[in-house]
Amino acid sequence: MLVDIDLAPIVIFVYNRLWHTQKTIEALQKNDLALKSSLVVYCDAAKSAADQVEVEKVRKYIDSVEGFNKVTIIKRDKNWGLADSIIDGVNCIVNRYGKVIVLEDDLVTSPYFLRFMNDALEYYKNEPKVMHISGWNYPMNSNRLGSETVFFRGTSCWGWATWSRAWQFFEKDARKLSETFTKKDIYEFDYDGTARMWAQVKGNISGRMNTWAVFWYASVFRQKGLCLHPVTSMVENIGHDGTGVNCDALNIYTSKVTNRPITTFTDDLVEDSKTVSEIKSFLKKKKKYLFRRIVNRLVRLVK
Hints:
Helix content: 40-55%
Mean pLDDT: 89
Number of domains: 1
Structural class: alpha/beta
Radius of gyration: 19 Å
C-alpha cells in the first residue's frame, strides 16, 4: 500500500517511568516508517514531590530522542492526570492533522506497527463505519481465523489510531451514558455479560476512577462503529508490573507479538461473531483466574 506520504503523527503520553518509556520509544525507532514520521511526546507534570525526580529523568531522556522525521516535546506545567492529558493531546493532534496514532509509555511495538497503522488509516479512511484501528488483540487462536485482520465492537488503548471524523463523536460523560444506555446496551457493551466495562463507567460516576478509554469505546459503540484489530497483536504491554497508573501486576492479557507485516485487510465490514465468541470465552477464564488470585492472596494474609 502507498503509505510513505501523508503519514499519521504519532503521539506518546509519558510520565515517570523511564525504563518503560525508553523501551517504548526504542521499539518505535526500529519501525521502518519511523524516520518518515512525526513524533509528539506529552509528558505530564509531577503529581507530588515524590514523583518529581522520576519525572525529571523521563523529561531529560525525551529531550534526547532522535530517529524520527520530527520530534515535538510538550511538557505539562501542571499535573493533568492520564485521562485528561490523553483526551487533550488526542484532540489537539487529530483535529490538526485529521488522523493520529496513539501510544502510552508502556507499549512495545512490532517493527511493522507503524506500517500497519498507516496502511489501515489509508485503507478505511472513507469508511465511516470503521472508527478505530487497534494494534493489540486478545490472545486468540490465530490459525482458526484464516485472515490477518478482523472487526469487532471493542476498542483497545494499547496502541491505536483513528481519524478526526470518528473522534468527533468522543464524549466523556458518565452520567449521560448511564441515562441513555438501556439494559440491552449494557449487556452488549459488556460482551454479553462477560466483561466489566460498564463497571468502569459507574466507577467514573462515583469518583472512584478517572479514566478515558471506556468512554472512547462507548462513543464508538453508540455509533455502531467497528474496530479493526490484527489477528496477531503488534503490541505488547510491559506495564503490568505494578508501576502504571491504572495497571496492576497482571499478564493474562499478554499476546504474542508478530514480527511479520500485515499485508491484507478485510472488506467484510461486520463484526466477526467467531472472534467475539472467543473473546467471551477468554473473559470468562479471566474471571476465574482473578478469583483464584484473590483467594490465594487472602490465604497468604491469613497465614
